[in-house]
Amino acid sequence: MTYPDLKFGIFLAPFHALSENPTAALARDLSLIERLDELGYDYAWIGEHHSAGFEIIASPELFIAAAAQRTQHIHFGTGVSSLPYHHPFMLADRIMQLDHMTRGRVSFGVGPGALPSDAFMMGINPLDQRDMMLEAIEVLVPLLRGETVTRKTSWFELNEARLQLQPYTKPMVNMAVASQVSPAGARAAGTHGLGLLSIGATNAGGFSALATNWEIYARKAKEHKQVVDRRNWSLVGPVHIAESREQALDNVRYGLEAWVNYFQEAAALPIAPNEPGVDPAQALIDSGMAVIGTADDAIQQIQRLQEQSGGFGSFLQLAHNWADWEQTCKSYELFARHVAPCFQSTNVNRTASYAWASQNHDRFLNAVGGAIQQEIDKDEQEKHAK
Fold first, then answer.
1. Cβ neighbour number for residue 37 with a 10 Å cutoff
2. Model confidence pLDDT, tens digit, residues 280-332
3. Is 85 within 8 Å of 61 (Cβ atoms)?
4. Where are the alpha helices (DSSP H) in 178-279?
């Protein structure tokens, strides 16, 4: 079965172990984006984090500006900009500039902020973050459309605010709202007709909530007379593939433990497995959260997500550095070569051409044989004529 519209990319937080040189790690992240661009990936969403030392990109806009200069085709997204941490006018101004600098190769992913430690350092109550996100979205949408906004809330004020630049992407830069188990993201996205970004699509809670989130999303869109499209829904999940399952499991021994420890000890997010005595890689596989195996396993995961969700537009691999650099790049290459084409129309004509040639094989073989025999007969006639 093919899904002609399905697109692929990565969600780059990023995750870098504390033992690594951060300067070299960031440089390697840029190199990864260049490699993905060469492999034909569609998207790279870049995260924003400010604490805990593991997810070390503080400004997605800065990273995207640098990466856009090194690439030709791949489309970028802020994955995501934490709205309570920014005055919405300043953030909108930076995104508008980036829309122009990338010639429209950027999407604006937004959310309330993922790390409680980030909010704590800025004196923001985690209980207020989702309401602050909604208030920011209400002014960001008209600002990015080039409209004038006046609004006063408990944490920001706008007085006849209007951006200097008109949007490069018409009518406005593409926006998407992060959603996991909470309905807040789906409600906001539907209300404003924005895209939906399901970051925890493969963990137990996120997977179970996929159909529910779409129902909320579509219902709010209908209430507010917005048009939504499943092609604007992105699902995120971790993948590492190799030529065999045994090789994939061996590869992830390089960095999986540090990733698991980060989520168990610092990130305050219930993502990584926490079962004493159970191999974390096997726990991730058994729970359905991660693919650590072959291209066939990745294909089955995407089909599973299709069935659970009812359909979506893009699948983003959660970039994780479980394997070393060489094997990480190999995984992305295997995915591009053997997984993505199964969900796209890339090989439809090739397959039809092969089938046609196969069905007519005997006819063509006889024709070739006849042509050869004709030349043999012609040569014999010329020989005897002499």
1. 18
2. 999 999 999 999 999 999 999 999 999 999 999 999 999 999 999 999 999 99
3. no
4. 184-192, 204-208, 210-223, 245-251, 256-265
